[in-house]
Amino acid sequence: MFDNLREEASKPFYEEEAKFQPAADTESSIFGAPSSRRILGMTAVQRFVIAFMFFLAVCIIGAMALFVTGKIGF
Question: Is residue 74 part of a domain?
């Protein structure tokens, strides 16, 4: 199992996979919209989900801060 460890360690790991492969067509997105409509590589639905999760996190943290400071109570 460990007989050729030093020889194998000196060889490049990805010899066969080191060849250049061109990227796939980046002009069209999943739904056929132009790539200029994508922000940070996300579709509109993905951006909405991220924004909604951020909104919920801010609401929860704000409610917890109000509860801890005693401004509201149950």
Answer: no
**Is the alpha carbon torsion for 65, 69, 73, 74 positive or negative?**
positive
Is this structure's pTM higher than 0.90?
no
Buried/exposed code over 3-42 (b: 16+ C-beta within 10 A; e: otherwise)? eeeeeeeeeeeeeeeeeeeeeeeeeeeeeeeeeeebeeee
- C-alpha distances (whole Å) from 2 to each of 11, 15, 16, 20 are 15, 21, 23, 32
* pLDDT, tens only, 32-74: 555 567 788 899 999 999 999 999 999 999 999 999 999 987 7
Domains identified in the chain, total number: 1
Give the structural domain span for 43: 5-69
